[in-house]
Amino acid sequence: MASETASLARLSMSLPGELFRQLDIMVEERGLPSRSQLIAELIRHALAEHEAFTRPDEMLAGTITLVYRGDRGRVRHQLAQTQADYLKEVISSQHVFLEDDQSLEVLLVQGPALLLKELCDALRRVRGVQQLQLVTTTALLPPLYEPEAGDRPKESVA
Questions:
Q1: Distance of alpha carbon 49 from alpha carbon 8, whole angstroms
Q2: Are residues 132 and 70 both part of a single domain?
Q3: Average of pLDDT values for 111-138?
Q4: Domain that holds residue 96
Q5: Is the Cβ–Cβ distance between 47 and 62 less than 8 Å?
Q6: Contacting residues for 85 by C-beta, under 8 A, at least 6 apart
Q7: How many separate domains does the chain show?
Q8: Residue 145 lies inside a defined structural domain of this protein
Q9: What does the alpha-carbon distance between residue 40 and residue 156 come to, in Å, rounded to a whole number?
Q10: Which CATH number belongs to the domain containing residue 107 in this structure?
Q11: Rounded CA gap, 24 and 88, in Å?
C-alpha cells in the first residue's frame, strides 16, 4: 500500500458548479469511495479510446457491442461472415435475442487498433445494425496458445 501511495500524483482542477454536482451524484450512485476513483476510471477509458485512434499498430483488447434487428438469419449470417474475416481478432462472441425482433451480440476482441477499427466499420455496414460500440483497454489477454519450440502435432491413432 505504501508503494502504491508513493506512486500517486495529485491533480487540482476547477469545474463548473453543475458539472461538479453531477460528478458527485455519479460517485454516490455508483457507490464509489471518492471522486478520484471515478475520475481515474474516466481517464483510463479516454486514454484507451485515444490509443485506438492515434496509434493504429497499438495492440488493444476489448469488446464490441452490437444491437441489430431485421431478418435475423440474413443479418446474423452477414455478421458471422464479417467476423470470420477477422478470425484472429475475434476471440469469442455471445448472442441473445431481445424484444421487438432485436438481437444483442458482444464480441471479445484483441488486435492492432487499426484492425479493430476496420472490423467495427465492416460490422456497421451490415444492414440492420442499429448500434455498435467498441470499448478498448491497453491491457491484453494472455496468449491463448503458444507452441513451444519442440512441440509438434500429435499423430492420430487410427
A1: 23
A2: yes
A3: 93
A4: 57-137
A5: no
A6: 122
A7: 2
A8: no
A9: 52
A10: 3.30.70.1150
A11: 42
Is residue 2 over pLDDT 60? no
Q: Which residues contact 140 (CB under 8 A, 6 or more apart)?
A: 59, 60, 61, 110
C-alpha cell at 131: 448500434
Q: Is the dihedral of CA 114, 117, 122, 125 positive or negative?
A: negative
pTM score of the predicted model: 0.69
9 to 4, 23, 51: CA distances (angstroms): 10, 20, 22
| Residue 4 within a domain | no
Residues 6+ apart with CB under 8 A from 14: none
**How many residues are there in the chain?**
158
Give the span between the Cα atoms of 136 and 116, in whole angstroms.
9
**Are 96 and 116 within one domain?**
yes
Rounded to whole angstroms, the Cα distance separating 121 from 8 reads 38
128 with 98, same domain? Answer: yes
Residue 155 lies in a domain: no
Q: How confident is the model at residue 157 (pLDDT cuts 50, 70, 90)?
A: low
